[in-house]
Amino acid sequence: MAQKTEDAEASAPASQNGEDLENLDDPEKLKELIELPPFEIVTGERLPVNYFKFQFRNVEYSSGRNKTFLCYVIEVQDKGGQVQASRGYLEDEHATAHAEEAFFNTVMPTLDPALRYNVTWYVSSSPCAACADRIIKTLNKTKNLRLLILVGRLFMWEEPEIQAALKKLKEAGCKLRIMKPQDFEYIWQNFVEQEEGESKAFEPWEDIQENFLYYEEKLADILK
């Protein structure tokens, strides 16, 4: 499987979550970051603030962001119309399995044909070609699954292979769109750790709207 690695930092070394290792004064913390196991899938309900601010930022050149963060909402409807909802997030270590594939392997390994599934992903970047293929195969064999993918950035969108994969996703019935500022706020409120007893308001970064429009135009050109 092709690694989902974007442009690497050319200057000081950094952790995979955007923390400058040279600026860490705590030797134990530094040791912990350096020795982080490189191949694992991390799951949870809420992700740390600094992970969100670095990994989800919709920058044009995503230097140093070599992991995928996937927040999900699953709504399951039974024959009587009752709906049960659950949410959580995944992050990958870009090697044995990407977050998109891990979702189907660990979060939804089996689907009951008697139920209807509406799934929404909020992903830091769009799928690579291999993950898109896995999504397409799952949608084709699971007619009771509806998937909406909202992405912060487009991964290697200039590559013909990636463009073809995104088009095939659309043809398979997957809804794909770029995150608006309101979507980042939704992630902040529902998937990001907050201080105990205190909920801070989402603070948009300076170019959030400009970058949304940039990626929205690129995606529209690809899918037309």
TrEMBL record:
The name this protein goes by in its record: mRNA(cytosine(6666)) deaminase
Species per Swiss-Prot/TrEMBL record: Phyllostomus discolor
Annotated Gene Ontology cellular component terms: cytoplasm; nucleus
EC number in record: 3.5.4.36
Pfam families reported in the protein's UniProt record: APOBEC2 (PF18772)
Ranges where the CMP/dCMP-type deaminase domain occurs: 64-169
Superkingdom as given in the UniProt entry: Eukaryota
Self-association state and partner proteins as the record states: Homotetramer.
Lineage: Eukaryota, Metazoa, Chordata, Craniata, Vertebrata
